[in-house]
Design goal:
There is one protein chain. Mean pLDDT is 88; it is low at 1-24 and 342-346. Helix content is 10%, strand content 47%. The protein has a 14-stranded antiparallel beta barrel. The protein is mainly beta. The chain is globular and about 65 Å long. The longest helix has 11 residues, at 4-14.
């Protein structure tokens, strides 16, 4: 019976592949922004890190576990050009039905001046987008596997234009505690528009298939993560039509570059309990946004996290371009830690 659940979820997501059009652009890309400071510091995406953090199931719903019962998390990110976004979630375990979590993601693009064709100001307007999600996960086959799903209701407001969509993530995680390793597969953002910005003009969703692996070294407090994304688009390079081809790269370098554009690498250092240091590398981000003469730290991210009393804090900083970087802040807690159950004595 349990095996039918992930099968149905995966088949359902593949039924929407026709909407993906991975060769072109897509809308609602804000749902792929790294909400968690921890994930941001690990390169911007991670689907296999299983560490009792309610922020992680947003990237792979099968990472939702019983240990997250009554956890609450809040995130805030300071993006570019006055844009900011955030995410909040709460989890609850329902007996034998599995673990559920509800969350909301938002992005605020700020305030804009509205003018007519002559430049005369008519007023101001704002633009924003929201993602309301409901997650579920349950262990199967003696907890060797965990399956999960994330149903997303997306709403977008752009000036006088509105749009909404229904999307689904489906994930499965394979746990190997003896090897301190997890492997994961996620089908993301399969779905369709409920309401298009323009009637009759339906646009493609940010559909993606990803795989990931996280491994902790046996005799060292270091954990490595590898996430492979955009598996439906083998070549993610972008070339200018009038680019100078006089200095061509070797075939090996070209192939290596194309492969690495799909890979995000994250490393966690765990020197003591309740504290971690992170560093990540996103090759696609580096190749798209670096300045050739001054690549600097484009594509590099770092951060740290710690627990004080009942609260967990984390910070992540990701360098996108020579001109700037993003700052991500996260705080988490377990509601049960704030009250003590009465002890009945006879």
């Amino acid at each position: 019976m349990y095996l039918k659940i992930p099968t149905i979820l995966i088949l359902l997501t593949f039924s929407f592949v026709s909407f993906a059009q991975v060769g072109g652009n897509s809308i609602y890309d804000f749902i792929n922004l790294p909400n968690s400071a921890r994930v941001s510091s690990l390169g911007g995406n991670n689907i296999s890190l299983n560490d009792n953090d309610l922020n992680l199931p947003f990237y792979n719903p099968s990472l939702l576990t019983d240990s997250m019962h009554h956890q609450a998390v809040m995130n805030f990110s300071n993006y570019f050009a006055g844009i900011n976004y955030g995410y909040a979630s709460f989890a609850h375990k329902y007996n034998d039905y599995g673990v559920f979590a509800a969350g909301i993601q938002y992005v605020n693009y700020g305030s804009f001046r509205e003018t007519d064709e002559t430049g005369q100001e008519l007023g101001n307007f704002k633009s924003s987008e929201y993602n309301f999600n409901l997650m579920w996960a349950k262990p199967v086959l003696d907890s060797m596997f965990t399956v999960g799903a994330n149903l997303k209701t997306v709403y977008s407001e752009m000036y006088q234009f509105y749009s909404s969509a229904l999307l689904l993530d489906a994930g499965i995680t394979y746990h190997l505690p003896k090897w301190q390793m997890n492997a994961a597969l996620v089908v993301k953002n399969a779905g369709f528009q409920l309401k298009a910005y323009h009637s009759g003009n339906r646009e493609p969703m940010p559909f993606d298939i990803q795989v990931g692996l996280t491994k902790k070294l046996k005799h060292a407090p270091i954990r490595f993560s590898f996430t492979i994304h955009n598996m439906l688009k083998p070549d993610m390079t972008y070339e200018l039509q009038n680019a100078d081809t006089s200095s061509k790269k070797s075939e090996f370098l070209v192939i290596s570059d194309k492969v690495l554009r799909h890979v995000i690498i994250g490393v966690e250092l765990l020197p003591v309990k309740n504290f971690f240091l992170n560093i990540g590398y996103n090759h696609q981000r580096r190749m798209e946004l670096q300045i050739e003469t001054r690549p600097y730290l484009s594509g590099i991210s770092w951060g740290f996290g710690f627990k004080i009393s009942k609260f967990r804090f984390s910070y992540g900083r990701a360098r996108y371009h020579l001109a700037g970087a993003t700052n991500n802040f996260s705080v988490g807690m377990n509601i049960d830690d704030f009250y003590k159950r009465a002890v009945v004595t006879e």
